Structure formats: C-alpha cells, structure tokens
Amino acid sequence: MARITANSAIAIPKALVLKFPHYLGSIRIWESLYALPFAYMGMVLAAEGWPGWGTFIWITMAMGGARTLGMSANRLIHRKEDAQNPRTAGRHLPRGLLTPREVIGMMVVSAGVFFFAAYQLNGLALALAPVAAAYVVLYSFAKYYTWGCNFLLGWGLAIAPAGAWIGVTGHVAFEPVLLSFAVATWAGGFDILYSCSDYEFDGKYGVNSVPRRFGIAGAFNITRGMHFLSGCAFLALGVLMDLNYFYYIGWAIAVSLLVLENAFLKPDDLSRLHAPFFKYNSAVSMMHLIFTILALVV
Description:
Blueprint: H1 6-26, H2 32-47, H3 53-77, H4 79-84, H5 92-95, H6 100-121, H7 123-138, H8 149-169, H9 174-195, H10 199-205, H11 210-240, H12 245-264, H13 281-297
Helix pairs in contact: 2-3, 2-8, 2-13, 3-6, 3-7, 6-7, 7-8, 8-9, 9-11, 11-12, 12-13
C-alpha cells in the first residue's frame, strides 16, 4: 500500500492550483460574460427588481455549473477534430495541457454544482435541471448529424434567461420564452458566422453547419434574418412587460451595434470575423441588462 506523506498530501492541491488556469481557459470563462447578463435579465424581470442575494447566488452558481458542463463536454467530444483544425489545434486537450480524464472530472463537478444550485432554487428548477444538462451536453453531437446545429447552439445559450426566470418564480410563462427566443436567434446567428471560418475544414471532415448547407453568402443572409428577428423579439418583450423608456434606449443601442456588426462583415472577407470588434459582444448583452435594470428601478 502506498504511503501518504505530508509532501504527497500537499502535491494534490498544488497540482490543482497549477492546472486551474487551464481549466478556466478550456471553458473560455470570459465568454460566459455573453450569456450571464441575459440570465440576470431573466432574473430581474421575473422578480420585477432585485430577487434577493440568495436567489442571485444560486442562479449564478447554476449558470456557472451549466456553462462549465456544456463547454467541457464540447471540448471532450470534439477533441479529435480540434487537433486537426488549425484554428482549434491550440486548445487545451489537443496540446495535452488537460487530459480527457481531467475534463470528465470537470463535467462531474460542474453537473453537481448545477443540480445543487437548482435544488436550492425550487422544485421546478430541479425537475428541469436534468433536461437542461442533457441538452448542453448532447447538442455538441449535432454537427455530426444536422446542418441545424448552429440553431441548437443558440437554444443552448437561451436556456439561461428562461432558467433564471424559473429559478425566481417556480413556473413557466410566455415572457421568458420570448426572451429566450431573442437570445437564441442572436447567439445562433453569430455561431453561423463563426462557422464560416471552418467552411473548408468542415467540408473535408464531413461536419455539418449552415454555411456548408447554404454557402457562405447564404449563411450571412440567414444570420441577418435571425438578428432581425432577435431585435423584434427584444422590442416585443419591452412592450409586453410594459417597461419604461430606459429599456428602449438600451434596445436601440444594442440593435445599432448589431446592425453595425452585420454591416462590418463581408462574405468575401472572413478575416474580419477575427477583428477585436467582435470580442465585445458581451458588452451588448451587458447593455441589455443595465438598461433593463434601469427600466425596473427608475
């Protein structure tokens, strides 16, 4: 039997500490800033203001757990093609910075956090948690079977505001469905654009996407249509919930940025997809959140 010494007892925490930046990097923690404001938007709209620190903490933990679960599963499922794709070869699994076993460990821990947070919120949140968990894991397989995978990713992010609403109220309503539709079309549209970068690779390896089905120019047109629907849905939400003018100021700014982003991109110049301009999409969701809060409290 191996002896456990003081040094070996210390080695485990040190190993975890040294790996911690890789864990965060592998799930692209900064991209959570895109979805998290929409979750908080669903939360404050459901509560018609501040829901209390307890609800805020558990919703944040549920979001973090679900996001980590989904991204970890995505990295694990796609590790082979990630290693072959020049755009993704630098990710943590292909480079050996993390092992599949470590990523599975992340999935187990994050799923536990997600379920525990849902349990702390209410019965409906807990009952729906397995459905949400299964979705954020299984949608990663979609690109092997259907070109609609980009739409499914959008709905994966759209779980956030509806889940937060349920976490506050304990029931489903039309308003969070409308908000989720707005988020799904917004995020799904951008995922279609980003898929254009892998157009040649996806064709070579038999990976499905909207660009592979309709071509790059067609994918751009579909994205613009989706973003138009997203803007309409956000506008309809403000009208339906009788929010004041602050909400519409935020809506106008966010939609203006969206129009600018779509005008900035050209089907014949995909290099613009990697411009720093597109790293600030999280600012758009934050804009929606800030002006929604102002609409509720002012």
